[in-house]
Amino acid sequence: MTKIRTHLYSTAKGDFDCPQQWKELLGQDVINGKYPYKIRLKELHINSQKFKSLCSQSDSFNRWYDSLNHKIISFRYGQEHGFQSLKKSPKPKVKKLAVKSQSRTLSNEENSPSVKASTDKFYRHDSRIEEFKSKILDLLKKSGLHYESTICIGKYKADFWIPSLSVAIRINDPSTDNQTYVGEGYTPTPFLYHQQFSDAYLRNEAKLFFLWTSNNTEKTLRILKSKLGLCKSNKVYARKLYVSEDRTGLREFMDKYHLHGFSPASMYFSLRDSSNNIHAMMSFRRTRDLETVELARLVIKGDEEVIGGSKKLLDTAIPRLKEQGFKQLLSFAYRDITPDPWNSVYARLGFTFVGFTQPGLFFYAAHDIRTPNGTFITEGVYSRQKFQTHKLERDFGWKNAHAGDLKSFGLYTLNDSGNLKFLLNLQDNGKNK
Prior knowledge:
Distance between the termini: 61 Å
Number of helices: 11
Strand content: 25-35%
């Protein structure tokens, strides 16, 4: 017997036109509460072959299910450009709950991949997950840190737990952690899923790192090593380095050491040694607000701990920024790898945490795609800008297509946990608190 559990979200009000026989079978429960509206298909115990047969024979169910999927995507796009504004406030004091690790052992029959995929809502059988997990294990073993293989807070399960640092690590793969894929043993992850996942851990004073297999593995492991404080044996002191505005080598430095690589900017500052080797850098760019400038990139050389590096770069940049009339410095931190805003480099530099942005939107090509006009899209993750509605026919030859529904072409919407937003008032004499 197979247990199937599904959670679906929609913006529409009222009941849905689901065939009556399927309502009875699935136990549909529509909750007409505060937006968004949630439909729960209760746990269904039914032979998996019979379920597949019913799905293939019931045209009315397929039509209803397809329309529901479209409404899910509509909800996603309705929230795309929103921003979750929070009041400026100190770190909330929350009651620390006991965190229990999962210890259930599967029987030999349950250990088969097909059974695990359908019985465990959180199970992801992609080989990339296992390969990535083995590299995390190697890192943790070499570090000497005590860790547990599984941790669960509420319904949110992470792959590793490091008690001494209150750090949890969750490994995501875009093939199974996207918003619109529906397959045996999988359910679409709602728009706010990863953000709510992070919120649950933050409320319990645990720092959750989301590591995606689609990102460069070497860079991800290097960043994780730095975040876990495992670079202390290789210290470099900023007082022995000089600040340079030379742009030579900065693009390569960002591509090598920043998770998202190079980003264009108008001002660059780097810390270099006597041999002109780069150890850290900051870049700044203008925003639409003429009085606000953005700290676009803060990059530290991997496997190094540059003592006082960020502060020295910022202290050098602030007078230059004030000369150009800027009154406020803005920056965003990627929440997947900066889970605690009150214990981040920005907080230590005197920035004020403003709030969380909405989750970012990406597209995942589940396989290599050849479009009608001959363009070849390889399997991987892409920015939402690449597949905006007005570009679909022009760049790919997809007529009458909409960015909200590209899964028929093999493209699925993917969300992260968003960003942390920080502000620094440059008029406070440029002093970092």
